[in-house]
Amino acid sequence: MYEQASHAMLNDILREIKPEIGDFRLRHFYTRLGANFYSIHSLFRLLYGDRLDFKAQMVSLVETLALRYMERVPDLRKSDLARERDYNWFLSQKWVGMALYCDRFAGDLKGLRAKLPYLQDLGINMVHIMPILDCPPDHADGGYAVRDYFKVDARYGTTEDVEALGMTLKKRDMLLVLDVVVNHTSNEHEWAQRAQRGEKKYQDYYYVFDDRDMPDTFEETMPEVFPDTAPGNFTWDEAMGKWVMTVFNHYQWDLNYRNPAVLVEMIDIILFWANKGADVLRLDAVAFLWKKIGSTCQNEREAHLLLQLMKDCCQVTAPGVLFIAEAIVAPSEVGKYFGEDAINAKECEIAYNATFMSLLWDGVATKNAVLLNQGIRHLPVKLDRATWLNYVRCHDDIGLGFDDKDVRLAGYDPVQHRHFLLDYFTGKFPGSVARGLPFGENPKTGDARISGSLASLAGLETALASKDPAPIDAAIKTIVMLHSLILSLGGIPLFYYGDAIGTLNNLEYLKDPSKRDDNRWVNRSYFDWSKAELRHQSGTLEQRIFNELKKMITLRKELNAFADFDNRQLLAVDNPHLLVFLRTDMHNVRDRVLVVSNFNTDAQRLPLGTLRPYGLFQKNAMRELCSGACYTVENEAVMIPALACCWLID
Ligand code: OTU
Fold first, then answer.
1. CATH numeric code, 562-649
2. Secondary structure of residue 354 in the 3-state scheme
3. Which atom, in ligand 1's list, is nearest to the CA of 396?
4. Residue minimizing CA distance to atom 12 of ligand 1
5. Is any atom of ligand 1 closer than 6 Å to the C-beta of 328?
């Protein structure tokens, strides 16, 4: 958009920036800057307009964008242009992701190159490497306490290894996803250390206070993220003689985005990794970016403005790069991370679908799909060119973050129901086969979350101990069903390393003093390559899980109806155990897939009454794609086997 004030400002900046920037071949840069400058300028003014250094900070921002553009290699610029033309590229059903720790999966970054055939065997073509940047070894929070944003942890490799991996992936038509930890740094980051040494400039990078006055006021309304291991949101720093805001662990200092210099630094970091070949950047803990007295300090409007700025800036320098919002927040809030009041996504193109993840686990515990149906109905509406990241498990705990209203509509009392889920997944509920651990218990609020590997939560650990084939079978079916739903719901499915071979809880972490208080590590084990080999051996559980998942991934990629174009209809059926939805190919509406899954351990009747008006089962039979089986109508219903997920076509 052209607007006089912004354009005059842009002209001023172009006059002032370093001369070498003017000389470079920057045609695309300037057209993109022109297109986004009105927005960048307006947002920057809204956040920082009353500061004396406003203009200087704007110049520094534009210089950062230009310098990173000049550095962007021709291959990546080419891919930017290609993605500009094919702008819906990431909504295609062809993408299937996996998150993994490069050290735990493959030793290091070079090792990961050698393990790509395993990923390709399964059908994975988007690799999220969990954080690899330099962190203090004993205070790393799994890579989320960064000491140096420009340096890869020497144990994993070098920046060159990342670039080389990026190129290898590109050749194989695979995408690279990297983390940018935008909300906080390690207390050993240079900025924190200089703040500790009393440099005012760097104290202004954080929320630093002389006494408890402000911290106490903040605490009145701020929840705690790790109430048991890191209570409170502030830490006394002896060296500085001041309090510093630490929402997560005491060694993770929250960055202060009220200071524009922090934003410019972070945009520089984002573009640095975009230039190293990342196709997608996962922005960690984005809900927390802006702190305000009297609020929960989550989901603040300014956090969204910051993300819009980050996106606008990234579009100028590296428009082909996408953002994932890691915002594990209430269903009513999460949709806003695609960007509010917009048509196209203008913050993050992709967001973790944490609501769907926890709803899936509700289905597993209750053995019905009542809350799941309710919750899906209320999933926030997405913008155009936005998509979900659908997952069953990740490296973190599972929060029971569904909407209380939905829980009530499903017929449960929210407090009691959450208690039940916690008891179920920690194996306390009579008859429960789950083997999870309680995480982040907060006696003040009664809240708790759940740790545990997918297979152990789904009952495989208990079943294997019993040596009884029936529960083993049920656990395998549960694992497969959950994956079939993330593959078919709409969005990018994100697998978690280890899950395709039924990896159980691992208690190794208890031996490591830096990890033993954080039971999320139960689900971050070293990938067992000899177990993975068993996928080739007929009849093993590894083979049974891996093969099913592989088959489903292959099928997904062939089904245009599984691309994400607002083409899912949830169908109401008269059986609480079933989740039923229809996916339609938007380019050929006769191509449809009816997805039916049965969360119950008994076969269930799918009554056809409500399905007939959609023209389903017209010929009284539909074919199931994964098994090839024919599902036929009897007495106006179809029988859906226990724990099955069917992809039915005419
Ligand atoms: C994210 O977590 C990461 O995924 C965690 O591994 C980190 O510990 C954390 O940030 C701090 O960097 O912030 O927006 O266990 O679900 O902390 C949500 C709780 C987050 C996580 C939550 C999450």
1. 2.60.40.1180
2. helix
3. 15
4. 144
5. yes
